[in-house]
């Protein structure tokens, strides 16, 4: 039956994984439209329990992931190449960074670049700090960079590293189940592996849909600012339809033609917007503030990495960490399989050390600059300008419109706001099209560069993500942003547990493939009780370095047998 459906639709994919995933997603869409309030209530109750009882698990877990990545990059595993030995990177570093940025948190930077710093500036998370003060500004930047710096990219980097290793070093299918090979062995190709893949796919679709929903809210806010198009579910659904069509066109063109070109265009536009704010705003204040923000982030990071809000300053702040940090980690982890495979796909040929420090270094550095400039510029408007951002973002809750309220304080506000909307649309598009490409790879279990799938097969996933986003915004009956947060918090939990499995699988897999470490050999000293004896030992040469043997058992056996084993007999087993 399933095979006939595949042939009828002209699809080249795994029937079981494809039909099960599509069925679950469509079932959610239908049930939500028929009983939106009930669905919202169920997810609201579940997410509330998770935030209350498991917030500590998310906070400590991401920090553990970060420490693991630094360790594995600095260990003897750091020189292992993510691909065949000697393979070179496929993409240049600038192109690699552009695709990392666009597929990672480009939409998030646009959405939260002004909204988060100004929110924490008005309502300091830990209490005991006067709102709107210098201390409040420092705390706001510390938490903002904590949320969008090393920890966010750690959530992307860990699965990306695991995917890159098992897909390009072990040549396994581009699926989440491949990471479980050290644990499950050949069972990753059976029902257990398929179940893991379906769970990962459903979560990934919802995670990307949340990003799509946030982008849609911001685009609607921009259109309201520019053309007076009010915020409404109908407008948001229409925005999703339009952007899904654009994303479908891009994903049909493929990685190098569609996604890569859009990513490059968007990073150029984003940098241009950043430079515009820096040049037309209080330049010296922004430069000094950005540097100072990095210092505040670096100095408070060890504390924030383990901070669990055990002693909240008041009842209002008791749930702050759950609705901000825990939501971020749960949301990011759900779409980390998509971003992970995408980063793995564009990082082939790099060493583990290059990969870790590149993924954690380049995007984080840009995030620090971005939030430093936009955050400090927002503070300047409140402290030295006309103000109004706190009222818009905090008092009226217009988070999607924060960027455009901010831009209204700068020259050429209408033009720049239009460019900002375009940037959000392209970020939105690159997230959907790259996600559709990766999800299709995860379903089919084939690398698109080796065995390209039909274009309409990739488009199906773009349409499904748009449908879920539209459903979450228009069909839950509990408010678009709230619905997005509640659903993603629930779905993120099993993904988070997978992160610990990934760490074990990576270490075990690399250890098995790399082989045993050669024994340490040192210069042996005789007794040195006198200057003469000391000098004699000092002049003794150190032993020649002994590298690990790279001979694979079985290689060259036929040659040795053809020589009658004479060479082996003559040189002895330790001749290497």
Q: Which structural traits does this protein have?
A:
576 residues; mainly alpha; Amino acid/polyamine transporter I; disordered C terminus
For the termini, the CA-CA separation is 59 Å
SSE sequence, one letter per element: HHHHHHHHHHHHHHHHHHHHHHHH
The CATH architecture category equals Up-down Bundle
Summarize model confidence as the mean pLDDT. Answer: 85
In helices, the fraction of residues equals over 70%
Shape from CA axes? globular
Category from helices, strands and their pairing: mainly alpha
Under CATH, the topology is which?
Answer: Amino acid/polyamine transporter I
- How many H/I helices? 24
Low-confidence stretches: 558-576
CATH class: Mainly Alpha
Summarize the main sheet: none
Question: Care to describe what's here?
Answer:
- The chain is an all-alpha fold and 576 residues long.
- The chain is 72% helix and 0% strand.
- It is globular and about 90 Å long.
- The protein starts with a helix and ends in a 5-residue tail after the last helix.
- Mean pLDDT is 85; it is low at 558-576.
Summarize the structure.
By secondary structure, the chain is mostly helical. It has helices spanning 2-9, 15-34, 36-74, 93-103, 106-112, 115-122, 134-148, 150-169, 181-184, 191-227, 233-253, 255-280, 283-304, 320-334, 336-346, 352-384, 389-395, 402-407, 413-444, 455-474, 480-514, 531-538, 557-562, 566-571.
Topology (elements, then pairings):
Layout: H1 2-9, H2 15-34, H3 36-74, H4 93-103, H5 106-112, H6 115-122, H7 134-148, H8 150-169, H9 181-184, H10 191-227, H11 233-253, H12 255-280, H13 283-304, H14 320-334, H15 336-346, H16 352-384, H17 389-395, H18 402-407, H19 413-444, H20 455-474, H21 480-514, H22 531-538, H23 557-562, H24 566-571
Helix pairs in contact: 2-3, 2-10, 2-20, 3-8, 3-14, 3-16, 3-21, 4-12, 4-15, 5-19, 6-7, 6-16, 6-17, 7-8, 7-13, 7-16, 8-14, 8-15, 8-16, 8-21, 10-11, 10-14, 10-19, 10-20, 10-21, 11-12, 11-19, 11-20, 12-19, 13-16, 14-21, 15-19, 19-20, 20-21
């Amino acid at each position: 039956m399933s095979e006939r459906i595949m042939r009828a639709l002209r699809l080249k994919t795994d029937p079981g994984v494809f039909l099960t995933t599509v069925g679950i997603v469509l079932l959610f869409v239908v049930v939500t439209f028929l009983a939106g309030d009930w669905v919202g209530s169920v997810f609201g109750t579940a997410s509330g329990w998770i935030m209350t009882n498991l917030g500590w698990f998310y906070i400590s877990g991401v920090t553990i992931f970060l420490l693991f990545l630094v360790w594995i990059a600095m260990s003897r595993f750091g020189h292992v190449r993510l691909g065949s030995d000697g393979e070179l990177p496929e993409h240049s570093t600038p192109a690699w960074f552009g695709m990392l940025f666009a597929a990672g948190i480009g939409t998030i930077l646009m959405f939260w670049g002004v909204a988060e710093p100004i929110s924490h500036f008005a309502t300091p998370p830990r209490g005991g700090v006067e709102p709107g003060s210098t201390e409040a500004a420092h705390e706001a930047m510390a938490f903002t960079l904590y949320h969008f710096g090393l920890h966010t990219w750690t959530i992307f980097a860990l699965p990306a590293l695991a995917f890159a290793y098992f897909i390009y070093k072990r040549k396994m299918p581009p699926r989440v189940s491949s990471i479980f090979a050290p644990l499950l062995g050949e069972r990753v190709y059976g029902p257990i592996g398929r179940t893991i893949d379906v769970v990962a796919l459903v979560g990934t679709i919802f995670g990307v849909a949340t990003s799509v929903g946030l982008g849609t809210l911001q685009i609607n806010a921009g259109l309201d600012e520019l053309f007076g198009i009010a915020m409404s579910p109908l407008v948001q659904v229409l925005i999703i339809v339009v952007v899904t069509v654009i994303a479908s066109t891009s994903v049909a063109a493929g990685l190098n033609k569609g996604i890569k070109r859009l990513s490059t265009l968007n990073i150029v536009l984003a940098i241009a917007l950043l430079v515009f704010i820096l040049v037309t705003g209080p330049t010296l204040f922004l430069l000094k503030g950005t540097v100072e923000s990095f210092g505040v982030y670096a100095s408070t990071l060890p504390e924030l990495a383990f901070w669990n809000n055990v002693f909240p300053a008041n009842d209002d702040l008791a749930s702050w960490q759950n609705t901000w940090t825990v939501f971020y980690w749960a949301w990011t982890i759900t779409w980390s399989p998509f971003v992970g495979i995408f980063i793995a796909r564009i990082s082939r040929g790099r060493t583990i050390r290059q990969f870790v420090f590149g993924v954690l270094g380049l995007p984080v550095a840009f995030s620090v600059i971005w939030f430093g400039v936009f955050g400090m510029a927002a503070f300047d408007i409140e402290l030295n300008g006309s103000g109004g951002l706190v009222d818009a973002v905090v008092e009226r809750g217009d988070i999607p419109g924060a960027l455009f309220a901010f831009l209204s304080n700068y020259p050429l506000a209408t033009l720049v706001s239009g460019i900002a909307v375009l940037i959000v649309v392209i970020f939105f598009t690159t997230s959907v099209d790259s996600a559709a490409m990766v999800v299709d790879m995860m379903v089919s279990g084939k690398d698109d560069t080796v065995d390209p799938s039909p274009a309409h097969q990739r488009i199906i996933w773009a349409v499904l993500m748009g449908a879920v986003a539209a459903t979450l915004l228009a069909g839950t009956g509990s408010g678009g942003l709230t619905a997005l947060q509640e659903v993603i918090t629930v779905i993120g939990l099993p993904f988070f547990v997978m992160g610990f499995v990934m760490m074990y699988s990576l270490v075990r897999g690399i250890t098995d493939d790399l082989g045993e470490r050669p024994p340490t050999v040192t210069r042996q000293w005789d007794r040195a009780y006198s200057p003469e004896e000391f000098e004699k030992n000092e002049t003794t040469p150190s032993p020649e370095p002994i590298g690990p043997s790279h001979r694979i058992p079985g290689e060259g056996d036929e040659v040795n047998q053809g020589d009658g084993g004479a060479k082996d007999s003559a040189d002895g087993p330790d001749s290497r």
